[in-house]
Design a protein that fits this description.
The complex is a heterodimer of chains A (151) and B (253).
Chain A: H1 2-20, H2 28-47, H3 52-74, H4 79-86, H5 92-103, H6 107-150
Helix pairs in contact in A: 1-2, 1-4, 2-3, 2-4, 3-4, 3-6, 5-6
Chain B: H1 2-24, H2 29-42, E1 47-53, E2 56-62, E3 68-73, H3 81-96, H4 101-113, H5 120-137, H6 145-165, H7 169-189, H8 196-204, H9 210-221, H10 225-252
Helix pairs in contact in B: 1-2, 1-3, 1-4, 2-3, 3-4, 5-6, 5-8, 6-7, 6-8, 7-8, 7-10, 9-10
Classes of the chains: A mainly alpha (151), B mainly alpha (253).
Amino acid sequence: MFVVEHMVTSFISAAAFGIIFNAPKQSLFKCGIVGMLGWMIYIVLFTVEIDTVIATLAASFVVAVVSQIFAKMYKTPVIIFSVAGIIPLVPGGIAYDAMRNFVQNDYNMAMNLAAKAFMISGSIAIGLVFSEVINQVIRNAKLSSSARRMR
Amino acid sequence: MEAKMMRRYDIMEVCLLAGKIMLQSGAETYRVEDTMMRIAASYGIKESHSYVTPTGIIFSIETEEPTKTKLIRINERSTDLEKVTLVNSLSRQISKGHLSVEEAFHALEKLDESDLSYPFKLQLLAATIASGCFLIMFLGSWNDFIPAAITGGVGYICLIYFQRVVPIKFFSEFLSSLIIGMLAFGFVQSGIGHQLDKIVIGSVMPLVPGLLITNAVRDLMAGHLVSGLSKGAEAFLTAFAIGGGVAVVFTLL
């Protein structure tokens, strides 16, 4: 039940974000799929008590890879899919918690949470970079092998 | 000679218009640069340089004649992924040689003026449902679904309305998150809502600068340090406005 609940809600929210960001109609369904994949990986890792930073890293990596595959398949910019997938991973909740603690003068707690929010957004970034690097390596390998054949 | 110069000028216009539309619609800076140079190259310009930041585009074309450079200022930025896709597919057509300079220019002009966004009611519905769904994803309980959805929807209406009235983006985000905070507080006080934190987090999600953060990171790693940092600053300001708006409610009540 837990899994189904999360699959449905993450699919709907990613597709809804596609509408808010005005993604093309035919890509809304794919946005939902990307968002769902990313969130399922995150929430599964989260429930088996793996650190949130690592869970976010894995999820954002998968989101980026799937977005790149979709972008190549449908000849559209990567950003359409990756944005919808990344949104649920963005540490909005933690950033909000940190902010609230700041206003309530609990600076220790606030700094802890702020550092955590920073770490999580960093791991989203690293996930994205990592998939980009792998993509470049594959492309370069293809190019050099075709160059060898030319010779 | 004169005709040749005219043509070159037109190529520049096509590139700049394509770049302008993409940047205004929220494309990554490196993609804008790449697209502009690709279009120029497919019209036979061997050397072109572009420098794109979130607030302006500088583009120059080098030929036998003296180098031509033009600058465009970008004031408004919104998110319209459909336009990014359409310019992208236009530039693909151009590089295949299917479009002449004039045809491309007219197509881009039409695209620039058109409004492709979904009807406002649909966007509002999306924001409303997304807020409710985020509540469930952040491990909230189902009996908070409707309060979160209503709060998120009202917050989204406020954001759109304030953005029309108040020219400062920071302020409109601050005000709408203030209203979200008050509404959520009201729901919990009246006993309809249960977990204040979860309701606020869920309904604030449509305002969270997710696209900006992703874009900032992608620009930074593509080596566009200036635009990456400035987009990061914009994202930070937005996050700060949202957090501040909600926080004010907590301190007042």
